[in-house]
Amino acid sequence: MTPYGANVAVVEPHGIERIDESERHGNPRDLFSLWFAANAETATFATGILTVALFGTSFWGAVLGITVGNLAGYAVLGFLAQMGPRFGRPQMMISRQALGTDANVFPSVLAFLAGVGWFAIDTIFGAFAVQALFGLAHVSLAYLPALAIVLAIEVAIVIYGHNMIHLFEKVAGVALAAGFVAIAIACFQRANPGAAFDVHAPLASGGEIAGIVFSAALAFSYAIGWAPCAADYSRYLPPSADKRAVWWWTFLGGGLPSTALEILGAAAVTAIVGTDLAAATPSDIIQKLFAGNWLVSLGLLTVLLGTVSANCLNLYSGSLASLVAWDARRRPWFAVLVGAAFTLGAVLMLTLAGQTDPSARFAPSVIAGSALVVGIVTGLVVRFTLVRWQAALLVGALGGALSLAGLYPAAVAREYTNFLLLLSSWATPWAGAVVAARGMPSQARFSGTLIAWIAGFVAALPFYQQAWFVGPVAAHLPIIGDVSYFVGFGVAFLIARILASQTHPHAARA
């Protein structure tokens, strides 16, 4: 085997096994460039747009919510990244040490599905940018070659793996910073920082306070969406790496661009008056901002580069999660059980969606077909395994197939919000339980973390206030916005620590 180490020109030979000390390399500050480039992208910009365009939040209210949400979310991400140098394993393998092998299959499959979903959405935005660059935005058939170009670039980078991704993100981060500075200049020349709460926004029923909470929830959910892959990019660091440095570089690398670009997205809504931006893609926003100016090409190139930079992580971590989900005991009945559970979950989610969102009232055949595909894919991932680069091709193929939905851009833009909000419904209580599990003795870690995760998820349900599901508490108190993410994380963390302290008096202080 060719030594990997810091070699960029070699395909990464490692998967989910522990990285040996002889292969460890890098510095904690490398995490800044990686997380900066991964978050200086269009999905972050789109998140900021939604805070105002969808919920009607005033500009300064959105700034407040966005800041609070990112501070909390990236603080969690920084802590999880600290586990990489210590264990030398991907994040979902570390989760297995907290939840146990069988229970951990479920969050691993969810992380795999999330990776596929995020990869598909960002690839769609990238393909839209390629179309617009060539002046073919309104030619539907041009979408397919544009999609193929974006997919080829993303998959090629991820096949080479960890070191190539770090190098690409370093270079991309500089270009992305320059591109978004140009976008910001154009935006704030026309923006209205004094914009008040918009009572006519699609989901403005809760008022300004709810809008601020929604802004914080969106920012927090976006940040916590990275939690299942936090250690994936720090696991090659030496075990002696400074834990505080790992936390700070991760926190700053993700928090700074996310906060800045989400605020920029909120400002963009105030700069483009009279347009329904809740159903617009990032490429649409860029073209409206520059309004025929030659800088529109720079803006579209920034959108394209940003989607690739984020998708390298989505694809890489999604493929690692699929490897973690594999049942090493090769039990066919277990794969069928997991597949059936996800089939039923998909049926329930899609059925409930139609109760609160008229646009999500899917035909029974669509619900059954979609749920069956989810169940089959899930069962196959649990039953069979691949090497890392083959898993990357698999996730890329699945995400590419989903990206064909980009042929219907209006629907994609609308459902992006629902996907973003639902994505973190499992990840926030999972992150709270895993963070708390560090203090548990080994004999209580599995049961305590699992109980805490489930309890956090259940506790959050009444507080959901989303297009596809509204909980009873949120329905009666719309003014509180969607606090489900914060409730889920807090309950899971507290229960895990309580169980740890009851099992071992000194565990909660560990």
What would your notes on this structure say?
This protein is mostly helical. It has a domain at 28-326 and 385-414: Hydantoin permease, CATH 1.10.4160.10. It is 69% helix and 0% strand. The protein is built from 19 helices and no strands. The protein has helices at 30-39, 42-53, 59-81, 83-87, 91-99, 105-133, 143-160, 162-188, 207-224, 243-271, 282-290, 296-324, 332-356, 364-383, 388-402, 409-436, 442-460, 472-476, 484-503. Helix 6 (105-133) packs antiparallel against helix 12 (296-324) and helix 16 runs antiparallel to helix 17 (442-460). The longest helix has 29 residues, at 105-133. The relative contact order is 0.17. The mean pLDDT is 86.
Provide the residue-averaged pLDDT.
Answer: 86
Helix content: 55-70%
Q: Could you spell the SSE succession in H and E letters? A: HHHHHHHHHHHHHHHHHHH
The name of the CATH architecture of the domain at 28-326 and 385-414 is Orthogonal Bundle
Largest sheet: none
Number of strands: 0
Gross geometry: globular
Through-space gap between termini: 40 Å
